[in-house]
Amino acid sequence: MPLQYWLMKSEPDSFSIWDLRKRPRKTEGWDGVRNYQARNNLSAMKKGDLALFYHSSVSPAGAVGVVKITKTAYPDPGALNPESPYFDARAKPDKNPWVMVDVTFEKEFSRMITLPELREVPGLEKMEVLKRGSRLSVQPVTAAEFSIILGLAGK
DNA sequence: GCCAACGTTGGC
DNA sequence: GCCAACGTTGGC
After folding, report:
1. Nearest to A56 by CA among A153, A148, A139, A150
2. Which nucleotides of chain B have an atom under 7 angstroms from any protein CB?
3. Which nucleotide is nearest to A55 (CA to C1')?
4. What is the DSSP pairing of strand A5-10 with strand A62-75?
5. For labeling, which of A31, A34, A82, A141 is most exposed (least CB within 10 Å)?
6. 3-state SS of chain A: helix, strand, coil percent to 5?
7. Nucleotide in closest CA–C1' contact with A39
């Protein structure tokens, strides 16, 4: 199976690509996903897959860099911890539906590729993140889309 | 801060 | 199983 590509959204106020770069080994667990479709995408990730790091809920929003999946899906302990903002009372230690992966910093783009810019680029029309009302926080991206965006970042 | 769009919940 | 109400996301 060749590498797969993804887009992962985070609000930079809670966790930014700059936070990730400062972590030991530039690695952090991507936790707190509480949507089944996004969870399924996390579960489908393979070691070595690459993901666009996307800053959401900022103006403008956009892709700011690339991370690598360095650990495949494992149970997200936050779901079991009442102190966690991501606690889910329905999750049990033997039946925890929520997973997380580890991501490692790969690169930061020299500039943000903003959402308005992405909308203008031929070949990206079908991207999930461009759809009206798109809220999925972990999305698949095709190899072609990923390549186009890296090209924009390299300019 | 507003509000459209979405996913989830819960009454029936 | 339907669907209205609700809470959340996220662009603007």
Report:
1. A139
2. 4-8
3. C10
4. unpaired
5. A82
6. 30, 35, 40
7. B7
**Which protein residue has its CA closest to C1' of C10?**
A57
Structure tokens of A131?
Answer: 């759809």
DSSP A60: S
The mean predicted confidence, pLDDT, of chain A is 93
Contacts for A132 with CB less than 8 Å, ≥ 6 apart: none
Q: Is the pTM for the entire model greater than 0.85?
A: yes
> Maximum CA pair distance of chain A?
49
CA distance A6 to A45: 9
Amino acid at A107: K
pLDDT digits (tens, 9 = 90+) for A26-39: 999 999 999 999 99
| Plot region of A3 (φ>0 → left; ψ -120 to 50 → alpha; else → beta) | beta
What's the token pair of residue A118?
């992405």
Confidence of residue A133 (pLDDT cuts 50, 70, 90): confident
Angle at A114 (CA atoms; ends A112, A117), nearest 5 degrees: 125
What residues are paired with A101 via a beta bridge? A30
